[in-house]
Every structure is written in C-alpha cells, then in structure tokens.
C-alpha cells in the first residue's frame, strides 16, 4: 500500500514536471498558432489578431500626419502592420499571399535580429491601402495563412532550418527578397550559419536554378543573424526540387547538433 | 489519512515547482533591484555597485593613456561606467538624473542588441569627471534611481513595453535621444516592433506633442532590436498625457500575445 | 512511518527538480564538448563533426560555380566551414592552430550576434584548400582543439568573460583580429560591456603591452554585441601577464552580478 501511494504521488509529480518542461521549451521557441479571433477581448479598433511566432496583426485607419514621413509611408494613411518575434520568412510569404488577394501594397519590410534568443530574425511588415477595410482584410489573410508558412521551419535546441517555396512570387517577395513577380521562388536558410552555407550548395546542385541572392551574418541581407540564406528562381519544378534536397540535408546536419529537427505546424513543400 | 498524506506531499511539491518556475522566469527577464552596497565584498576600487537589469556601475580613476583615444574619452581621464544586459532607456534616464546632480559629463551612450534573449537593447554609458569622486558619486546616484526608471517597463513572455517621461530633460537625454535640455521629454517603445508602431500613433494623437525621433528595427536608432521607439517633446502635461495613453494601449496589445504585462518595480509616470 | 514516506518521496522529487534545473541551465549556455566522431551516423560527405558551443565542422569538395562569387571564395573551390552558436574567439583560435598545421588558408571570418540569448557572438569561418582532404583535416583539428580555447571563457547567469592568448599568432588571428603573424597576441572580453571596459584598462596597466584594437557595442568590431573587447601584442610574457590580471578582475566583477563565473572546460592561460 505504501508503495502504491508513492507511485501514485510520483506519477502526478512527474506529470507536473513534464508540463513545466514543455512550457519552458515552448516559451523559448514559438507561440502556438491561434486564429485572428481575439479582437473583442482586446477592445481596440487597431487590433486584428495574433498568430504563431508571437505575431500580431494591426491596422491604423489614418496615421497621424506627424508620423507619415518618419515612418516612410509615402502617400498612404491607412496601413496594416504585421510583426512577430520569430520568423521573417513565414510572415513575408503570408503577406505576399495577402497582398495578392487584396487591394493593398507593401510599404516596407524590416528584419530585426530576434527569435527570442534563437539564431534568426523577427519581422515588421507595413502594408498600405486606400481604405482601412482593405488593410484589415489583408492582415487577416496573412495571420490565417501564417501557420502554413511555418510548416517548413524546423527547430531543435541547437538552431533552426527554414525553407520557403512559391510557384508565383508576388509583391512582398519582390520588395523584400528581390524575387521576380509571377515567377517561381525558393529559399533555403539555416542557423547556425555554417549549415546554411551547405544548404545553399546543396540547392544549386540539386536542380537547374538561378541564384537571386546569398546572405550571411556579416555580408548583408541579414541583421547580423547567425544564418546563411540562399534565394533562387527557375522553373517551378526545379525550384521545388532544389528546396526539397536542402530540407533532407538540413535535417541531418542540424540533427547532428541536437534532437531531430521538428516543424511546429505541417510541412507544405 | 492516505489522502491527506498525498495532499500534503503534493502541496509541498507544487510549492517547489512554483519556485522553480519563478526562478526561471526571472532569470530570463531582469535581475532584482539591489542597492550599490557590495563594494567591500568585491574588493576592487573600480567597483561601485550593481542594480536591476544586470546593471553594473564602475569607475576608473585614471584611464591608461593607451586607451583614451580608442575609447574616445576626449580630455577625460576619470570616468564612470554604467552598463546592463537589459534596458537602455532606464539607464539613460538614471544617468540623466545623476549628471544633473553632479559635476560630470556624458561622454558616450551605446546600445548593444541584448536583453538576454528579449526584443530590446542593453546599455553602455560612459561619463567623465575632473575627479574620480565625482564620477563615483554620479554612478551611485544612477544605480540608486535605476529601479524607478524600470517602473514603466512592462513585460510578459511575448515581449516588453517601455515608457519614460521627464518634465526637464538634461545632458544624457540630449546626447542619447536628441532631447532639448530643460524641456519635457517622453518616449514610447514596444517589442515586437509592430506594437511600438501603434503606440507611436497613439501617443501623438492623444496630446499636442512634437515628434523628436522615430526608430524602427532597420531604419536607424536601434541596433536591429525588435522595437519601434517614438520620442517627443511639448508641454510637460501633454507629454505625460501622450505617454499615459500609450501605456494603456500597449498593455492591451502586448497582453493579446501572452499574460498581463507587468512592471518589475513600481510605475512612476 | 508516514513521515519517512514523505521524506522518501520528497527526496526523489527534489532530485528530479534538481535535474530539471541543471538541464535548463545548461541549455541556456553551451553544449558539451564532443569529438569529431559522428560522421557515420549523419551520412553526408560534407559533415566532419561537432564540438562545444553548438559548433559544426563541414567541407565542400567543389563549391558550385554559381556560389563562388556570392560567397566571396576567390579562386578556392574546396572549402572548410566552422561555425557555432556560441563563441567567436575560441573558434578563431582553433582555426588559427588548424591553418598553421595544414595546407589551408582563411577565406573569411564573420561574427553573427548570437550566443543563444547571451551577450556575445557566434561564428562563421571559411577556409580554402587546393584539396578537400586538406580542408577536412583542418576542420578536424579545429574541432578537436576547440574545447581548449573555451577554457578561459567563464560564464554565470548575468554574462560572460572571454580571454585568449597565444605566443605566436597565425593566419586566422591576422585576418580576423589584426594580429601580427609570429608575435604574441592576447584578448580580454566581457559582457555586459561595462565590465569589458574595466578589463581593457586592467590589462594595459598590468604589463607592457601594445594595443591592437578596442571594440565596443556601437563603435565597430562587434555586431552590436554587449561586449568590450581589447586585443594587444608585446613580449609573450607581458601579454600573458596582462591577460591573467584581467581574468582575476573579470571574475570578481562578473561575480558581483551573479554566481561565481565558471569555465565549461579547463582554463589554459
């Protein structure tokens, strides 16, 4: 009986310990995906919603004239804002899709050095619209599709891998990543940066693609993040093949530094 | 009796678990405030004390001539140094008050990208004096008032908000933030940066203030931190009103990404 | 009997809690040292091995021609890559030794802002060789000696100290740190940066050395890390004496912000 008692207590304790570990693990990576649905509880007209990666979506119906110049908004007064602590690529992909589907335009894309202690970036993307309802709609779409584009972000305790692919790039990828609108576009990225260098070589050898850009910690294209990033274009089949080859290699290399790298949502490439 | 035993054990275990959680939470944010009182135990004449934000205060009575140029000290040989892992704004405010009260001058203010995995900056501030006792006195004052200026820094697991206000800016705010000496000065700041953009708009709409500067991750004024920062001046009542309006909005927005944002000390604005 | 039972359960629980704490503490600092021995399990010809600081060693036998320009490889096609999340100094020292011992050359050294939430840098070092077997040999040597050069990296919950010393600098220190080949070279570094400023003054006052460079968060030489770094040369005895004096002072100052600063391997200076 005493033994049973001990076991019962120990089980409950070990369950609680597991919960604590999980909580601290998830706190150090990314927040769970959540739909754009909390507007009522926040009670601010500017608030649109939140999503994975500590991402928040916001709108301003009419930016104060004192700020339009310092915020470099051009002629836009109605803006949408999407920004997160973790991930620039997923948010850029999500806004690319949102801008394609709405009457809005990308004003600026900035890459803070963040990821909450991780090796990569956060994001701050501003879009402009004639009418705030268009900006709000675009932000909603971006938040809703964001979990998809976290699908091929893989992480473990040592670092992360990120891959993106689209058959037809649009305005946000053009602005932020030098993609050509209407053409296929792919990206390989890893932190620590050493792995990203190998993934770049893997991708260009795996298929007939054309390099758009290569970024490393101290040579531009990053905000001193610990990443090497390759972007490329080509036939959509070739671009996808190049990305897929890099995913396989990336998982093995990052896995050598820690546990099996895992996606927090569902891979889409 | 068995049940009581289990409950007694479970309570003690759950208390210990709570202590563990608290410890890891505080480790990832800021150190507790502590007075400038540990000089004796360290046993170095350069040591003045420590304070909240992993901040340390130091003096050098006579900097070696080999370093005065590379450290850009001008004609000063006696210097005070205040720097922390978390927070640039609070340290700048504290030094502003310290320089006002002593015969010292601000030599340089640098903003490392830090906050121990958070979205913001750390700080490195160097002040100069004719006599090292003046530098030491200024550092002591700064360390002592520092907890006050952490009062309107609010944080949760997703990010932070920072607000500062003074009715009369002095030399450190002039040097670091472009404030005009003797005039009121206010600041709104949030990470993730998206929230900071809304706070800027909230502040300028809430009262009749004049913008001094706007900083974002990739457009200067930050070291690629995940923050948008607005600084402004005006009538002291208006500046305070603008800051207060932003505090209300900031707490709601950051709260949408996590728990209720909380101050580690006592709000002063 | 009940009391014994409680004590038994409490002991086991407290052991488990201690294990959890240790795990989270080590997760936030550096990975354990491990030899370059996991190549077989990864199954990629590019993989050489891993080591302390989440460091990975890799080679590419023939970099794709599309990448040689964007990666700024000059005429080299066979390269070795060494990069980690934590530590630039140790990796630079390790590669310095590896290049000295092999037929390879340093192509580039980049310093991402990293250390997994710490105050310092990560690293990305690329070396070139005529033959990939030379590059592989150099990477193996660097990974094997890396734990030695983490010997005088000391950390606690508030920050870190880093010291390096060599009686004869070679190509990597020349490229990355402005050292003169064949001469003694020393480095003092601390985060938060305020402590690093004191260590610089301590070092130059302790012995007859000549300053090579001084780096601070916003004045170049760092990627906005929260560090002040001094590098210097001179008679090898003097350089070592200067470094040793700074180690003593650094431990006291960093210790004032937290626990006793400890090395993760074995001090060598």
TrEMBL record, chains A, B, C:
It holds the Pfam family BMC. GO terms for molecular function: structural molecule activity. Keywords: Bacterial microcompartment. The keyword Protein biosynthesis does not apply. CDD domains: BMC_PduB_repeat1, BMC_PduB_repeat2. SMART domains: BMC (SM00877). Transmembrane segments: none annotated. GO terms for cellular component: bacterial microcompartment. The keyword Transcription does not apply. Residues 46-158 form the BMC circularly permuted domain. Its main location: other. InterPro entries: BMC_CP, BMC_dom, CcmK-like_sf, EutL_PduB, PduB. It is found in: Bacterial microcompartment. This is Microcompartment protein PduB. It comes from Eubacterium oxidoreducens. The lineage of its organism: Bacteria, Bacillati, Bacillota, Clostridia, Eubacteriales.
């Amino acid at each position: 009986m005493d033994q049973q008692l001990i076991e019962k207590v120990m089980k409950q304790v070990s369950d609680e310990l597991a919960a604590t570990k999980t909580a601290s693990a998830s706190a150090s990576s990314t927040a769970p995906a959540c739909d754009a649905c909390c507007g009522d509880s926040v009670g601010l007209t500017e608030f649109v919603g939140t999503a994975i990666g500590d991402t928040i979506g916001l709108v301003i119906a009419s930016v104060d004239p004192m700020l339009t110049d310092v915020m470099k908004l051009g002629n836009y007064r109605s803006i949408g804002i999407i920004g997160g602590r973790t991930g620039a690529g997923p948010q850029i992909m999500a806004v690319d899709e949102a801008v394609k589907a709405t009457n809005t335009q990308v004003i600026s894309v900035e890459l803070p050095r963040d990821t909450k202690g991780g090796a990569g970036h956060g994001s701050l993307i501003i879009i402009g619209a004639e009418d705030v309802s268009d900006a709000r709609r675009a932000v909603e779409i971006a938040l809703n599709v964001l979990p998809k584009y976290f699908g091929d972000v893989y992480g473990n305790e040592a670092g992360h891998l990120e891959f993106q692919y689209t058959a037809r790039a649009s305005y946000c990828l053009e602005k932020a990543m030098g993609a050509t609108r209407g053409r296929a576009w792919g990206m390989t990225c890893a932190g620590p940066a050493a792995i990203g260098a190998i993934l770049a070589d893997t991708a260009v050898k795996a298929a007939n693609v054309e390099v758009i850009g290569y970024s490393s910690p101290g040579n531009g294209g990053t905000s001193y993040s610990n990443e090497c990033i390759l972007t490329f274009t080509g036939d959509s089949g070739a671009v996808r093949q190049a990305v897929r080859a890099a995913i396989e290699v990336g998982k093995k290399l990052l896995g050598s530094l820690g546990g099996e790298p895992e996606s927090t949502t569902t891979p889409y490439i």
